[in-house]
């Protein structure tokens, strides 16, 4: 479980393909603090640390993960947002993020707002029932509040700190991002789908 508050950026150093899996060596300022078998969010995807070498660590994504996220597009030089799992004795500054990506979105527009940025994304409309105005979303692992919600687009406002400390600063129109919808909304939607009282 994560909060969507990014701790650091990591740089992909190497991509290794083995069958339908892809393993990644990444370098970050906190890699040497990880432990083997630890869960770490990488652009919103929960991955298990398999090996550590000084300021580098290795993780592997299986086919299911590659198909539902943007990890299949990672290459050497890609910058990734990372966050260690939630400590239960700390504050929950974002929202509950599982690290289980639901789908991807596409960046449609970036507007500079004289001190902040407004980003608009498209997403598959089959997920529209999970999107509410002023609700929470995890975008590349970042906890954000959504607005201007339509059946297939939404916007987020980015403050300077978030812009400068995540890979948002590298994003361009057409880029693909990982989206995880609010877990509470998903449970409610599932209960309604099954015709059960909440």
From TrEMBL:
One of its GO terms (molecular function) is riboflavin synthase activity. The keyword Transferase applies. Gene3D superfamilies: 2.40.30.20. InterPro entries: ATP_synth_asu-like_sf, Lumazine-bd, Lumazine-bd_dom, Riboflavin_synthase-like_b-brl. Residues 1-95, 96-192 form the Lumazine-binding domain. It is an enzyme of class 2 (transferase). Keywords: Repeat, Riboflavin biosynthesis, Transferase. It catalyses: 2 6,7-dimethyl-8-(1-D-ribityl)lumazine + H(+) = 5-amino-6-(D-ribitylamino)uracil + riboflavin. Lumazine-binding repeats lie at residues 1-95, 96-192. Pathway: Cofactor biosynthesis; riboflavin biosynthesis; riboflavin from 2-hydroxy-3-oxobutyl phosphate and 5-amino-6-(D-ribitylamino)uracil: step 2/2. Its EC number is 2.5.1.9. CDD domains: Riboflavin_synthase_like. Catalyzes the dismutation of two molecules of 6,7-dimethyl-8-ribityllumazine, resulting in the formation of riboflavin and 5-amino-6-(D-ribitylamino)uracil. NCBIfam families: PRK09289.1, ribE. This is Riboflavin synthase. It comes from Pinibacter soli. The lineage of its organism: Bacteria, Pseudomonadati, Bacteroidota, Chitinophagia, Chitinophagales.
